[in-house]
Amino acid sequence: MINYNYLTEFKLVAEKNFNSWITESCNTEGFSIIELNYIFCSDDYLLKINQDYLQHDYLTDIITFDYVSGKNVSGDLYISIDRVKENAEEFNVSFDNELKRVMVHGVLHLMGYSDKSDAATAEMRAKEEEKIKLFHVEQ
Question: pTM of the predicted model, to two decimals?
Answer without folding.
Answer: 0.93
